[in-house]
Amino acid sequence: MKGDGEKPEGAPRGDVESPAASGREASASGEPVGPTAAVPVDATRAAQTPAAGSVPASSKPVAAPEAVPTPLVLPAPVVAAAPAIVVPPSDADVERQLARLSRRGFLTLAAGGTAAVLGWRWLISRPRANGTALPFRRVLQANEALWEALWDPTRLAPTYPPSRAAKNPRVNGRLGLDAKADPAAWSLKVEGAAAGPLTLSLAEVHALPAQELVTELRCVEGWTIVVHWTGARLSDFMARFPPAARDGSAADPRQPQRMPPFLALETPGRGYYVGLDLQSALHPQTLLAWAINGQPLTWDHGAPLRLVAPMKYGVKSVKRIGTLRYSFVRPTDYWFERGYDWYLGH
Amino acid sequence: MKRLAPKHPLAVRWFHWVNFPVLALMVWSGFLIYWAYPTYRIGWGDWTLLRMQLPQRWYQLLHLNSRLAQGMAWHFFVMWVFALNGVLYVGYTLLSGEWRYLVPDRRSFREAWQVLLHDLHLRKEAPPQGRFNGAQKIAYTSVVLMGLGSLLTGLAIYKPIQVNWLTAAFGGYPRARFFHFWLTIGYCGFFLVHVAQVIKAGWNNFRAMVIGVEVVEEPAPAPRPVEEAT
Question: Is the ipTM of this complex over 0.95?
Answer without folding.
Answer: no
